[in-house]
Acyltransferase (Alosa alosa), 325 residues
Amino acid sequence: MEKNSYWKELKESISVVQFIYTFLCLGVTCLLFMTYLMFTSLWIIPALYFSWEVLDWHTPERGGRRTAFVRNFRVWKHMRNYFPVKLVKTAELSPSKNYILGSHPHGIMCCGAFTCFGTEACGFKEAFPGVTSCLATLGGLFRIPLFRDYIMAAGIYPVSKPSIEHLLTKCGTGNAVVIVVGGAEESLTSSPGVNTVVMKNRKGFVKLALEYGADLVPVYSFGENDLFRQVKFSEGSMGRRFQAIFKKVMGFAPCLFKGERWLLMPYKSPVFTVVGSPISVPKVPSPSQEQVDHYHQLYMEGLTKLFHKHKTSCGLEETHQICIT
Protein backbone atom coordinates (compact mmCIF):
# COMPACT_ATOMS: atom_id res chain seq x y z
CA MET A 1 0.00 0.00 0.00
CA GLU A 2 2.84 2.40 0.91
CA LYS A 3 4.61 1.59 -2.36
CA ASN A 4 1.46 2.33 -4.37
CA SER A 5 1.04 5.60 -2.50
CA TYR A 6 4.65 6.54 -3.25
CA TRP A 7 4.27 5.92 -6.98
CA LYS A 8 0.97 7.77 -7.05
CA GLU A 9 2.54 10.81 -5.40
CA LEU A 10 5.56 10.63 -7.69
CA LYS A 11 3.40 10.57 -10.84
CA GLU A 12 1.37 13.50 -9.57
CA SER A 13 4.49 15.50 -8.74
CA ILE A 14 6.08 14.82 -12.13
CA SER A 15 2.83 15.88 -13.83
CA VAL A 16 2.84 19.19 -11.97
CA VAL A 17 6.54 19.73 -12.74
CA GLN A 18 5.91 19.34 -16.46
CA PHE A 19 3.02 21.82 -16.26
CA ILE A 20 5.21 24.39 -14.47
CA TYR A 21 7.96 23.85 -17.04
CA THR A 22 5.42 24.29 -19.84
CA PHE A 23 3.99 27.43 -18.25
CA LEU A 24 7.35 29.07 -17.52
CA CYS A 25 9.90 27.69 -19.95
CA LEU A 26 8.58 25.62 -22.86
CA GLY A 27 7.93 28.61 -25.13
CA VAL A 28 11.47 29.92 -24.65
CA THR A 29 12.88 26.42 -25.08
CA CYS A 30 11.07 25.96 -28.40
CA LEU A 31 12.28 29.33 -29.67
CA LEU A 32 15.91 28.68 -28.66
CA PHE A 33 15.81 25.18 -30.14
CA MET A 34 14.57 26.37 -33.52
CA THR A 35 17.07 29.23 -33.53
CA TYR A 36 19.90 26.80 -32.74
CA LEU A 37 18.89 24.51 -35.61
CA MET A 38 19.14 27.46 -37.99
CA PHE A 39 22.92 27.42 -37.46
CA THR A 40 23.43 23.69 -37.93
CA SER A 41 23.34 21.31 -40.87
CA LEU A 42 19.63 20.82 -40.06
CA TRP A 43 18.81 24.44 -40.94
CA ILE A 44 16.34 23.26 -43.57
CA ILE A 45 13.94 22.05 -40.80
CA PRO A 46 13.38 25.46 -39.12
CA ALA A 47 13.46 27.15 -42.54
CA LEU A 48 10.60 24.99 -43.77
CA TYR A 49 8.75 25.34 -40.47
CA PHE A 50 8.98 29.14 -40.42
CA SER A 51 7.82 29.27 -44.05
CA TRP A 52 4.85 27.11 -43.16
CA GLU A 53 4.14 29.17 -40.03
CA VAL A 54 3.78 32.30 -42.15
CA LEU A 55 1.11 30.54 -44.21
CA ASP A 56 -0.50 29.24 -41.01
CA TRP A 57 -0.27 32.60 -39.20
CA HIS A 58 -4.00 33.17 -38.72
CA THR A 59 -5.01 29.63 -37.82
CA PRO A 60 -5.05 30.28 -34.03
CA GLU A 61 -7.68 32.98 -34.57
CA ARG A 62 -9.69 30.81 -36.95
CA GLY A 63 -10.55 27.91 -34.69
CA GLY A 64 -7.06 26.50 -34.16
CA ARG A 65 -6.32 22.76 -34.32
CA ARG A 66 -7.91 21.27 -31.23
CA THR A 67 -7.22 17.57 -30.64
CA ALA A 68 -8.79 15.21 -28.13
CA PHE A 69 -5.46 13.35 -27.95
CA VAL A 70 -3.64 16.21 -26.19
CA ARG A 71 -6.59 17.25 -24.04
CA ASN A 72 -6.92 13.68 -22.74
CA PHE A 73 -3.26 13.16 -21.82
CA ARG A 74 -3.07 10.97 -18.72
CA VAL A 75 -0.69 13.50 -17.20
CA TRP A 76 -3.54 16.00 -16.74
CA LYS A 77 -5.44 13.62 -14.49
CA HIS A 78 -2.36 13.10 -12.35
CA MET A 79 -1.99 16.87 -12.12
CA ARG A 80 -5.65 17.21 -11.14
CA ASN A 81 -5.17 14.73 -8.33
CA TYR A 82 -2.10 16.49 -6.93
CA PHE A 83 -4.04 19.43 -5.45
CA PRO A 84 -6.76 18.16 -6.16
CA VAL A 85 -8.74 20.32 -8.62
CA LYS A 86 -12.50 19.86 -8.80
CA LEU A 87 -15.02 21.32 -11.24
CA VAL A 88 -18.25 22.34 -9.51
CA LYS A 89 -21.42 22.71 -11.59
CA THR A 90 -24.19 24.94 -10.23
CA ALA A 91 -26.45 25.34 -13.27
CA GLU A 92 -27.08 23.95 -16.74
CA LEU A 93 -25.46 25.41 -19.85
CA SER A 94 -27.57 24.84 -22.94
CA PRO A 95 -25.71 23.57 -26.03
CA SER A 96 -28.01 25.73 -28.13
CA LYS A 97 -26.29 28.90 -26.92
CA ASN A 98 -22.79 30.34 -26.74
CA TYR A 99 -21.15 31.64 -23.58
CA ILE A 100 -18.33 33.79 -22.27
CA LEU A 101 -17.07 32.47 -18.95
CA GLY A 102 -15.14 34.95 -16.83
CA SER A 103 -12.62 33.02 -14.75
CA HIS A 104 -11.37 34.44 -11.42
CA PRO A 105 -8.88 34.78 -9.84
CA HIS A 106 -5.82 34.52 -12.08
CA GLY A 107 -3.51 33.28 -9.33
CA ILE A 108 0.11 32.66 -10.30
CA MET A 109 -0.43 30.00 -12.99
CA CYS A 110 -4.21 29.58 -13.49
CA CYS A 111 -4.00 25.95 -12.40
CA GLY A 112 -7.75 25.67 -11.80
CA ALA A 113 -8.79 27.27 -15.09
CA PHE A 114 -6.28 25.28 -17.13
CA THR A 115 -7.11 21.92 -15.57
CA CYS A 116 -10.87 22.42 -15.86
CA PHE A 117 -11.09 24.16 -19.24
CA GLY A 118 -7.79 23.45 -21.04
CA THR A 119 -7.97 19.68 -20.50
CA GLU A 120 -10.64 17.03 -20.05
CA ALA A 121 -9.28 15.94 -16.66
CA CYS A 122 -12.10 17.47 -14.59
CA GLY A 123 -14.98 16.21 -16.72
CA PHE A 124 -16.25 19.42 -18.32
CA LYS A 125 -17.78 17.51 -21.26
CA GLU A 126 -19.63 15.17 -18.92
CA ALA A 127 -20.83 18.01 -16.67
CA PHE A 128 -22.02 20.14 -19.60
CA PRO A 129 -22.97 17.83 -22.49
CA GLY A 130 -22.81 19.47 -25.90
CA VAL A 131 -20.77 22.45 -24.64
CA THR A 132 -17.11 22.93 -25.60
CA SER A 133 -14.75 24.86 -23.31
CA CYS A 134 -12.37 27.20 -25.14
CA LEU A 135 -9.70 28.66 -22.86
CA ALA A 136 -8.29 31.97 -24.15
CA THR A 137 -4.81 33.27 -23.36
CA LEU A 138 -2.18 35.78 -24.52
CA GLY A 139 -2.06 36.11 -28.30
CA GLY A 140 1.73 36.47 -28.33
CA LEU A 141 2.16 32.84 -27.30
CA PHE A 142 0.78 31.78 -30.69
CA ARG A 143 3.76 33.37 -32.45
CA ILE A 144 6.27 31.04 -30.76
CA PRO A 145 7.32 28.17 -33.07
CA LEU A 146 6.27 24.66 -32.03
CA PHE A 147 4.79 25.94 -28.76
CA ARG A 148 1.89 27.48 -30.69
CA ASP A 149 1.03 24.09 -32.17
CA TYR A 150 1.09 22.41 -28.77
CA ILE A 151 -1.28 24.87 -27.09
CA MET A 152 -3.56 24.92 -30.14
CA ALA A 153 -3.79 21.13 -29.89
CA ALA A 154 -4.91 21.59 -26.27
CA GLY A 155 -7.83 23.72 -27.45
CA ILE A 156 -6.39 27.02 -26.25
CA TYR A 157 -7.05 30.19 -28.27
CA PRO A 158 -5.79 33.79 -28.43
CA VAL A 159 -7.74 36.22 -26.25
CA SER A 160 -8.29 38.58 -29.18
CA LYS A 161 -11.44 39.91 -30.79
CA PRO A 162 -10.96 38.04 -34.12
CA SER A 163 -10.41 34.79 -32.23
CA ILE A 164 -13.42 35.18 -29.94
CA GLU A 165 -15.57 36.41 -32.82
CA HIS A 166 -14.72 33.27 -34.80
CA LEU A 167 -15.58 30.99 -31.88
CA LEU A 168 -18.89 32.73 -31.24
CA THR A 169 -20.02 33.16 -34.86
CA LYS A 170 -18.30 30.57 -37.09
CA CYS A 171 -18.33 27.46 -34.90
CA GLY A 172 -22.04 27.02 -34.31
CA THR A 173 -23.43 26.93 -30.78
CA GLY A 174 -22.35 25.24 -27.56
CA ASN A 175 -19.07 27.15 -27.29
CA ALA A 176 -17.93 28.40 -23.88
CA VAL A 177 -15.08 30.89 -24.29
CA VAL A 178 -13.17 31.13 -21.00
CA ILE A 179 -11.41 34.44 -20.33
CA VAL A 180 -9.25 35.01 -17.23
CA VAL A 181 -10.51 38.57 -16.89
CA GLY A 182 -8.06 39.91 -14.29
CA GLY A 183 -5.02 38.88 -16.30
CA ALA A 184 -1.48 39.90 -15.37
CA GLU A 185 -2.56 42.68 -13.03
CA GLU A 186 -4.61 40.26 -10.97
CA SER A 187 -1.69 37.83 -10.69
CA LEU A 188 0.21 40.49 -8.73
CA THR A 189 -2.49 40.44 -6.04
CA SER A 190 -2.31 36.66 -5.61
CA SER A 191 -1.66 35.64 -2.01
CA PRO A 192 -3.02 32.95 0.35
CA GLY A 193 -6.29 33.96 1.94
CA VAL A 194 -6.73 36.90 -0.45
CA ASN A 195 -9.77 37.05 -2.74
CA THR A 196 -9.07 40.12 -4.84
CA VAL A 197 -10.57 40.31 -8.32
CA VAL A 198 -9.48 42.95 -10.85
CA MET A 199 -12.43 43.78 -13.09
CA LYS A 200 -14.06 47.14 -12.37
CA ASN A 201 -12.45 48.54 -15.50
CA ARG A 202 -12.43 45.25 -17.44
CA LYS A 203 -15.49 45.60 -19.65
CA GLY A 204 -14.29 44.35 -23.02
CA PHE A 205 -15.56 40.82 -22.44
CA VAL A 206 -19.02 42.20 -21.63
CA LYS A 207 -19.07 44.22 -24.84
CA LEU A 208 -18.13 41.10 -26.81
CA ALA A 209 -20.91 39.16 -25.11
CA LEU A 210 -23.42 41.82 -26.20
CA GLU A 211 -22.10 42.03 -29.75
CA TYR A 212 -22.47 38.29 -30.30
CA GLY A 213 -25.35 37.51 -27.94
CA ALA A 214 -23.31 35.22 -25.72
CA ASP A 215 -24.51 34.69 -22.15
CA LEU A 216 -22.09 35.65 -19.37
CA VAL A 217 -21.10 33.07 -16.77
CA PRO A 218 -19.04 33.94 -13.66
CA VAL A 219 -16.49 31.34 -12.53
CA TYR A 220 -14.51 31.40 -9.30
CA SER A 221 -11.61 29.06 -8.43
CA PHE A 222 -11.53 28.83 -4.65
CA GLY A 223 -8.02 27.96 -3.47
CA GLU A 224 -6.21 29.24 -6.58
CA ASN A 225 -4.41 31.94 -4.60
CA ASP A 226 -3.25 29.42 -1.97
CA LEU A 227 -1.00 27.41 -4.31
CA PHE A 228 2.06 29.69 -4.10
CA ARG A 229 3.58 32.29 -1.78
CA GLN A 230 4.33 35.48 -3.70
CA VAL A 231 6.97 38.06 -2.86
CA LYS A 232 5.08 41.35 -3.05
CA PHE A 233 6.67 44.71 -3.75
CA SER A 234 5.21 47.85 -2.24
CA GLU A 235 3.62 50.46 -4.51
CA GLY A 236 6.27 52.82 -5.88
CA SER A 237 9.17 50.44 -5.22
CA MET A 238 11.70 49.60 -7.91
CA GLY A 239 10.47 46.00 -8.05
CA ARG A 240 6.88 47.11 -8.56
CA ARG A 241 7.87 49.58 -11.28
CA PHE A 242 9.81 46.85 -13.06
CA GLN A 243 6.78 44.54 -12.95
CA ALA A 244 4.55 47.31 -14.34
CA ILE A 245 6.96 48.08 -17.21
CA PHE A 246 7.45 44.41 -18.03
CA LYS A 247 3.67 43.83 -18.03
CA LYS A 248 3.13 46.78 -20.35
CA VAL A 249 5.75 45.56 -22.83
CA MET A 250 5.25 41.77 -22.67
CA GLY A 251 1.59 41.50 -21.64
CA PHE A 252 2.24 39.55 -18.44
CA ALA A 253 3.84 40.36 -15.10
CA PRO A 254 6.91 38.55 -13.73
CA CYS A 255 6.02 37.34 -10.23
CA LEU A 256 8.51 36.22 -7.61
CA PHE A 257 7.04 33.26 -5.79
CA LYS A 258 7.89 30.02 -4.08
CA GLY A 259 6.09 26.76 -3.54
CA GLU A 260 6.00 24.06 -0.91
CA ARG A 261 8.92 22.01 -2.22
CA TRP A 262 11.87 22.73 -4.51
CA LEU A 263 10.73 26.38 -4.60
CA LEU A 264 8.37 25.80 -7.55
CA MET A 265 6.19 22.88 -6.43
CA PRO A 266 2.80 24.36 -5.49
CA TYR A 267 1.21 23.70 -2.14
CA LYS A 268 -1.23 20.79 -2.07
CA SER A 269 -4.26 22.98 -1.56
CA PRO A 270 -7.63 21.93 -3.02
CA VAL A 271 -8.95 24.09 -5.86
CA PHE A 272 -12.71 24.23 -6.43
CA THR A 273 -13.54 25.82 -9.78
CA VAL A 274 -17.21 26.78 -9.43
CA VAL A 275 -19.15 27.53 -12.63
CA GLY A 276 -22.03 29.89 -11.87
CA SER A 277 -25.42 30.46 -13.46
CA PRO A 278 -25.53 32.10 -16.90
CA ILE A 279 -26.59 35.74 -17.14
CA SER A 280 -28.83 36.15 -20.18
CA VAL A 281 -27.41 38.71 -22.63
CA PRO A 282 -29.22 40.03 -25.73
CA LYS A 283 -27.49 40.36 -29.06
CA VAL A 284 -26.69 44.03 -29.67
CA PRO A 285 -24.26 44.49 -32.61
CA SER A 286 -23.35 48.02 -31.48
CA PRO A 287 -23.95 48.19 -27.72
CA SER A 288 -23.98 51.56 -25.99
CA GLN A 289 -21.76 52.28 -23.01
CA GLU A 290 -24.84 52.25 -20.80
CA GLN A 291 -25.70 48.74 -21.92
CA VAL A 292 -22.13 47.55 -21.35
CA ASP A 293 -22.11 49.12 -17.88
CA HIS A 294 -25.46 47.53 -17.04
CA TYR A 295 -24.43 43.98 -17.89
CA HIS A 296 -20.99 44.50 -16.36
CA GLN A 297 -22.75 45.42 -13.10
CA LEU A 298 -24.99 42.35 -13.36
CA TYR A 299 -21.91 40.23 -13.88
CA MET A 300 -20.11 41.64 -10.83
CA GLU A 301 -23.24 41.04 -8.74
CA GLY A 302 -23.44 37.47 -10.07
CA LEU A 303 -19.78 36.84 -9.25
CA THR A 304 -20.20 38.24 -5.73
CA LYS A 305 -23.28 36.10 -5.14
CA LEU A 306 -21.46 33.01 -6.43
CA PHE A 307 -18.54 33.66 -4.08
CA HIS A 308 -20.64 34.07 -0.96
CA LYS A 309 -22.93 31.13 -1.75
CA HIS A 310 -20.09 28.64 -2.16
CA LYS A 311 -17.23 29.98 -0.02
CA THR A 312 -17.89 27.85 3.06
CA SER A 313 -18.44 24.63 1.10
CA CYS A 314 -15.14 25.31 -0.69
CA GLY A 315 -13.04 25.72 2.42
CA LEU A 316 -13.34 29.39 3.36
CA GLU A 317 -14.62 30.88 6.58
CA GLU A 318 -17.93 32.75 6.59
CA THR A 319 -16.00 35.96 7.32
CA HIS A 320 -14.10 35.88 4.02
CA GLN A 321 -15.03 38.61 1.58
CA ILE A 322 -14.40 39.14 -2.12
CA CYS A 323 -12.71 42.41 -3.09
CA ILE A 324 -13.45 43.69 -6.60
CA THR A 325 -11.05 46.40 -7.78
In short: The mean pLDDT is 93. The first strand starts at residue 85 and ends at 89. The CA atoms of residues 51 and 321 lie 52 Å apart. The radius of gyration is 20 Å.
